Predict the structure.
Amino acid sequence: MTYEIVPQDGFVEVHVSGKVSHWDLLKIVHALHKKDPKKETPDLWILDQDLDFSLHAFPTIIQGLLNLVARGAVKKGCKSAILAADKFQCAKVDIYCAEAAVLPYEIRAFTCRTETMDWLLS
C-alpha cells in the first residue's frame, strides 16, 4: 500500500494505491486528522485502479472516524469525496458512503474528476 497526502488550493488530495487494510486506511485518516483536527478542509481521495480493499473494513473505518472527529468540531458543510477508478470500485465505495452517513460530514463517490470537484468545492 502506498499513499500520499497533497495539499491543494482549498482542499487536500489523498492518493491511495495497492492492497489496503482497514488499519492502513485508519493510518491515513489519522495523518489527515493531525493536519486538520477540526475537519475544516474538504478532502478528495483518489483511488488507483490497482487499489484492493475489503468491504468488511468499512465498520472499523467508520468507528475510527467517529472516535477521531468530534461532531461539534467539524466545519459545517465540510465534505469528503472519493474518486474511484472505475464503476465497480465506485459501487464498493457507494456502500461505504451509505454506512458513513453517521459521520458529521458528507461523503460521496464519483468516477469523474470534474463532477467530483464541482461537488466538493460547492
In short: Residues 2-120 form a domain with the Transcription Regulator spoIIAA fold (CATH 3.30.750). The two ends are 31 Å apart (CA to CA). Residues 73 and 89 are 31 Å apart (CA to CA). The chain has a mean pLDDT of 92.
